[in-house]
Amino acid sequence: MAESEDSPSSDMLAFQQTLRSSKHIIAVAGAGLSAASGIPTFRGKGGMWRKYDAMSLATPEAFEHNPSRVWQFYHYRREKALQAYPNVAHFALAAFSISSIREKIAPGSTFTLVTQNVDGLSRRAWDDVISKADSNIQETEKEPPLFEMHGRLFDVVCTSSSCQHRRLDFSSPICPALAGTEAEVEAGTVETDIPLSQLPRCSKCGALARPGVVWFGEIPHYLDEIDKLVEQADLCLVVGTSSTVYPAAGYAEEVAMNGGKVAVFNLDRSEGDTDADYLFLGPCELTLPQALTFASGNA
Questions:
Q1: What amino acid positions are annotated as catalytic residues?
Q2: Which residues of 202-238 are buried (b: 16+ CB within 10 A; e: fewer)?
Q3: Based on CB atoms within 10 Å of each CB, which residue in 50, 98, 113, 152 is the most buried?
Q4: Quick one: angle between helices 121-131 and 88-96, nearest 10?
Q5: Nearest-CA neighbor of 210 among 62, 87, 86, 96?
Q6: Residues 263/291, Cβ–Cβ less than 8 Å
């Protein structure tokens, strides 16, 4: 079936030519990026917000009302993430973020990954790519060009306003009382009522700690830095996101309004398609590596 003039293109070669000529590239990633790693998505078929009530689990009010329930949910998510490994889509983005590799694909370009995911898999993929690179690359690439705008599952933050200590903690479980509750969350059975004193505590002051993620109603991280990148971007890759949660859902539209190009890599159609110049439907772990590596053969 022929594409209409108004429909996004699925021509991979045309996209790669656009990629090669782009100078300021951003990628906006969502839960679909990690789906192949076994991390549940949120709004798609079988998504977490179809099984669990977001408002009772992912808001400051929910935590204030029932921190035991919220911690059990995030303990479940932490365990899922600890068991997961980055997939080839993570690695494709990680490799593309290395300037010497990207130079062969999009000469003279910059790249930043803005992820809504809190699972840490994008950072783990980058760490793995860097660890296998030669010493010259390791020396020049100190930190990944990555903004985890919704925080990280493995950050633990003090709830005391006078402390607010933040630490990175990969413990499994993060506290003894949470051990085994992930099975109850998975099964949807009656939850364990864990006393406040047995929930995770701040390692600095001993106050109740919370998961270091951005909940509904809270302000995402790095907005000023991301806004500057979006303003100058001439190509936006939308990867594995339903484009329904703002502000991330508006980034592709802003790039398009500024005259840039938008390429969407999604399993299914989404609201973000309206801004797309290119649309590649299917698992992003199949489409994205092809898009970001095959182009190097056109040099």
A1: 150
A2: beeeebbbbbbbbbeeeebeeeeebeebbeebbbbbb
A3: 113
A4: 60
A5: 62
A6: yes
3-state secondary structure at position 243: coil
3-class state of residue 5 by DSSP: coil
3-state secondary structure of 270: coil
Where are any strands of DSSP class E within 43-150?
110-115, 146-148
CA-to-CA dists, residue 192 to 75, 84, 174, 199, 241, angstroms: 13, 25, 16, 12, 33
Q: What is the pTM of this model?
A: 0.90
Interval 245-256 mean pLDDT: 88
Rounded alpha-carbon distances, angstroms, from residue 40 to 48, 85, 91? 6, 13, 19
Per this entry, what is the length of the chain? 299
Average pLDDT for the chain? 89
